[in-house]
Amino acid sequence: MSDRVRMGVFAVTGVGLLAFLLWGLAGLPDFGTYRGPYGDILNRIAVPERSATDVVTAVNFDYRAFDTLGEEFILFAAVVGVTSILRAMRGERTRAPDDEAAGRRVPETSLAVRVIGLGLGPPTLLIGIYIVAHGHQTPGGGFQGGVILATALLLTYLSADYATMRRVGPTWLSELAEGMGAAGFALVGVAGLVAGGAFFENFLGKGTPGELLSAGTILASNFAVGLAVTGGFALMLSEFLQQTLTRRRGRGRRPRARRT
Amino acid sequence: MSFLPYAVVAYVAAIGLYGVVTSRNLVHLVICLSVMQSSSYLLLLSIGSQKDASAPIFADVPLGTRAVDPVVQALTLTDVVVGTTVTALLLALAVQAHKRYGTADPSELRPERR
Q1: What pLDDT does residue B30 have?
Q2: Contact B67 A55 (CB under 8 A)
Q3: The pLDDT of residue A103
């Protein structure tokens, strides 16, 4: 398709799509006038019913937990997809890379980056765990905390190198975390079915609002999802990094046995 | 000005789609797609917003304080997570396409000849 034909098709369909979009948006209530009722109801009952002061997390991991299970498995499927797409041509990548900037030397990581990266690692881990553990009280939860935890692994790459990152977070560990987390979240749902009679029934004690051990299964779900997200993102990060690194390594700088 | 957030939604969606259609680089294309998708975050949050309402977090404010709709916020979280993972998947495809065809320009990708 030539550029002109493509722009023509886009102009016609784009104008049509925009018209439909504006038509639909015009039918929405005015900005700032929320009509409810579900949000208002949830804001009223989430704390007395579930002891979860973060109503968003209560919705995600309790009232609409089944939805989040689907979301979790979309993440799982995407991680499996990334891993298998980037693995498919592994045999081919061992030959000399055809990098466009073949003559360019890759500069060493500067000392400042190494030191700061190393120093940021432990606080990042701590913040990640904090965000996961307090998801039912303050903004945060398994998804947000999990991404922060995976960032800690990326910091080891920044401050050291790829091989060190793989030693700190080897593939089997990431895969285990991803699998265990996803399965654990589903098991929380099944446990609710067994103990409470409904999938994702919050069967654990709700505790006192504001305490760390409260909100029942929401806390458990947050930890399971946090584990899964950490593993999943760590896996995707190392897959993408491996793409660039095998190319870099193939140029004769620092040849090293592959650790996968 | 109560329509302004919706106008921004339409604008972000349109400009993202324009980027996807005219893109000359697969990585750029994937980013444009996520720009387009971010209009849905804005739409969801706009629908749930209320005048003079706080976030639906009752850790520091007393219960009964006017707060925005938590359901659309939870949906936005789902949206963000799904968007990120799809972006990762598409970028992986872009990497493989570049390796196989030696170009990241979508208009130069040709079907395999057998």
Answers
A1: 94
A2: yes
A3: 65
The answer to whether the CB atoms of B71 and A75 lie below 8 A apart is no
Mutate one of A2, A21, A31 to test the B interface: name it (highest B CB count within 10 A): A31
- Mean pLDDT of all residues in A197-225: 82
Taking CB atoms and an 8 Å limit, are A43 and B67 in contact across chains? yes
This model of the complex carries an ipTM of: 0.85
Domain boundaries, chain A: 36-249
**3-class SS of residue A201:** coil
For B112, the 3-state DSSP assignment is coil
Identify any residues that bridge with B57 across adjacent strands, giving them in sequence order.
A54
CA A133 to chain centre: 16
What span, in angstroms and rounded, lies between the C-alpha atoms of A235 and A255? 23
Total Cβ atoms within 10 A of residue A178? 26
Euclidean distance between CA atoms A260 and A242, whole angstroms: 10
**Residue B62, pLDDT above cutoff 90:** no
What domains lie within chain B, and their CATH numbers?
4-51+65-108 (1.10.287.3510)
What is the band of A241 on the pLDDT scale with cuts at 50, 70, 90?
confident
CB distance A30–B9 less than 8 Å? Answer: no
Percentages of chain B per state (helix, strand, coil), in multiples of 5: 70, 5, 30
Q: Name the closest residue on chain A to residue B16, using Cα atoms.
A: A14
